[in-house]
Design goal:
Elements: H1 7-12, H2 14-67, H3 69-72, H4 76-89, E1 92-97, E2 102-105, H5 118-123, E3 129-133, E4 138-145, E5 155-162, H6 164-214, H7 228-277, H8 284-314, E6 323-327, H9 328-345, E7 349-354, E8 359-363, H10 364-380, E9 387-394, E10 398-405, H11 427-432, H12 439-449, E11 453-459, E12 463-471
Parallel strand pairs: 7-9
Antiparallel strand pairs: 1-2, 1-5, 3-4, 4-5, 6-8, 9-10, 10-12, 11-12
Length: about 475
């Protein structure tokens, strides 16, 4: 099968994003540093040279003032110092007096000339100035010549320095940076590929496990403990797999039970029908007896199908609930009224006790089915002359319904299983009275859909009590 490359899926890949992230973390800072270093270095070099020239100018200032150079112009010591400094700077130094006349020029080009330059004029106002020309690679600094403690500027020292060394250093640095960046880019690429593979390895393991589950390969335990988070996901996946196994086993058991329950009445009807067909001149009494038995088996089959349909409806999402405020007192009275003929036939007394008026938000149809099953079980599994007591109470948050009977009770070892589908405490007796083993499962499902819970207390031979707690206000589960 040909796989079409999808650019969107490629960039949405966790592996690609990790690789890109690692590359960006390494490459971007390096690139920014290389690009910004040139301007930073140039600025720092110029500032350093300005400070150095000002410092040297202040030293010369003292020599010029102490020697009276501005007036005599014949100090050999000052001339030598100016020539030496000019050579060190690979530049030009000029001394200007208060008439703006150049009295000394180390280039011997403009001595005796008048200079009118804004920086020189500003320096006569007791200001130090600097000008950097990066196109021609030179720096000019002007320093006032004055006596210590005197604000009267007597002259100006103009110092020019060649700055070509900055371009030389930058060219060397840029060449070195290109080599280092290439090495770094290669290392970061290798690291990015390694990181993307390393950090996505647990996901590939999970994909492999899920694929095995899809293909029916048994997975007892999933162990992906590369990181704390993946170990936690492994534990949750193991819980999910265990639950899936339980659900699968329950499904298989459910299908088996359904098949058995549906097949049994059909088998009985077939045996009865074959018995009639295999006899000639069947007496009317026997014919009626067999047809009555067939009718009972049909009724039993119908009840099983109806209970299965009810169970399927209960398995649907809670969003299918038709929630509305319902008067619980009237609802329970109506349920007991419907069941009263069955109770009278069994000679069982129905008693309803209400402590206060109660209104709750429920799906009336589903909740009626749940309470009906509880009361009907109390009647069916009771003894002649027994009783079923139903009570209703509430507080500010919940309503409480108790269904208690004086019947045969439930063995202690069966209490944890009575809400399972098709589970019967006494199969022979349940079948005798028409039980399908689905009633309590339907009841628990209906109560759970209403965010309620049900508990059972029973003593074998003495009776059973079911406690139902239901929120008065139904709050639908938030969908995320």
């Amino acid at each position: 099968m040909k796989n079409n490359f999808n650019l969107k899926d490629f960039f949405n890949s966790f592996r690609v994003r990790i690789a890109v992230l690692v590359l960006l973390v390494g490459v971007v800072p390096c690139t920014v540093f290389v690009v910004s270093f040139s301007s930073l270095y140039e600025k720092q070099a110029v500032n350093s040279d300005v400070t150095d020239l000002v410092s040297k100018g202040q030293v010369l200032n003292k020599q010029i003032i102490s020697s009276g150079y501005l007036n005599q112009r014949d100090s050999e010591l000052v001339d030598n110092q100016l020539e030496v400094l000019s050579g060190n700077l690979s530049g030009r130094i000029m001394v200007i007096d208060n008439t703006l006349t150049i009295i000394k020029d180390t280039y011997n080009a403009d001595e005796g000339k008048t200079i009118i330059w804004g920086n020189v004029v500003s320096t006569f106002q007791n200001k130090t100035t600097s000008v950097y020309d990066d196109d021609n690679d030179y720096l000019v600094v002007t320093v006032p010549i004055k006596a210590d403690g005197d604000d009267d500027v007597q002259g100006v020292l103009v110092m020019n320095k060649t700055m070509s060394y900055i371009d030389t250093n930058l060219e060397y640095f840029q060449s070195l940076s290109i080599i280092l960046c290439l090495i770094l880019y290669i290392l970061m690429l290798v690291l990015a590929l390694f990181s993307s593979d390393y950090f996505t390895k647990p996901f590939r393991k999970f994909c492999s496990v899920i694929e095995d589950v899809e293909n029916g390969v048994s997975q007892d335990v999933v162990v992906v403990d590369d990181f704390t988070e993946t170990a936690d996901v492994s534990n949750r996946m193991n819980s999910l797999l265990n639950r899936m196994r339980v659900v699968d086993e329950s499904r298989q058991e459910f299908v088996s039970n359904v098949s058995h329950e549906l097949k049994t009445p059909l088998t009985s009807m077939k045996v009865l029908a074959d018995s009639l067909n295999g006899q000639e001149d069947v007496p009317v009494e026997l014919y009626r007896e067999f047809m009555q038995d067939i009718g009972e088996e049909i009724e039993r089959e119908t009840k099983i199908i109806n209970d299965l349909l009810s169970m399927v409806k209960m398995d649907k999402a809670a969003a299918t609930l038709n929630i509305a405020p319902v008067n619980m007192n009237e609802l329970i009275e109506l349920i007991l009224k419907r069941l009263k003929p069955i109770a009278e036939k069994q000679h069982v007394e129905l008693v309803f006790e209400s402590f206060r008026p109660v209104t709750a938000e429920i799906d009336e149809v589903k909740f009626t089915l749940a309470i009906t099953n509880l009361v009907e079980n109390g009647i069916k599994y009771n003894q002649e002359g027994g009783w079923v007591h139903v009570s209703l109470n509430s507080d500010h948050q919940y309503c409480y319904i108790k269904v208690e009977d004086s019947g045969m009770g439930i063995p202690e070892d069966s209490l944890d299983h009575i809400f399972e589908r098709f589970y019967r405490v006494d199969k022979s007796h349940s079948r005798e009275i028409g039980g399908t083993g689905l009633g309590l499962a339907i009841t628990k499902s209906a109560i759970s859909m209403h965010k309620g819970d049900i508990k059972v207390h029973s003593v074998e031979g003495e009776g059973t009590m079911f406690d139902v707690r239901l929120p008065l206000n139904y709050i639908a589960k938030e969908v995320r």
